[in-house]
């Protein structure tokens, strides 16, 4: 009888630990609808495409990117730069 008690206690305890671990890790996982939306494409008034530092804006998301031949893709959305 003692072995049956420990077997049942082990199975229930193991299930409880698994449930607690599942709930702990599920809490940190964001829901699909909680993902951030795209970047606002409205450019600030102080920075435009003719930036004196030699940078430009992405046509897709409006993010300021440096005008360097080494950069082919936007650093924010990954769209191909001109």
UniProtKB/TrEMBL annotation:
Transmembrane segments annotated in the record for this chain: 6-25
Keywords: Membrane, Transmembrane, Transmembrane helix
InterPro entries (alphabetical): DUF7577
Record domain DUF7577: where: 56-82
Record keyword Transmembrane present: yes
Residue segments, region Disordered: 32-51
Protein origin, superkingdom: Archaea
Protein name per the record: DUF7577 domain-containing protein
């Amino acid at each position: 009888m003692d072995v049956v008690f420990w077997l049942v206690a082990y199975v229930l305890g193991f299930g409880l630990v698994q449930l607690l671990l599942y709930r702990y890790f599920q809490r940190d996982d964001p829901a699909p609808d909680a993902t951030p939306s795209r970047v606002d494409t409205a450019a600030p008034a102080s920075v435009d495409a003719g930036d004196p530092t030699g940078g430009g804006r992405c046509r897709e998301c409006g993010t300021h990117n440096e005008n360097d031949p080494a950069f082919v893709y936007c650093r924010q959305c990954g769209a191909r730069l001109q």
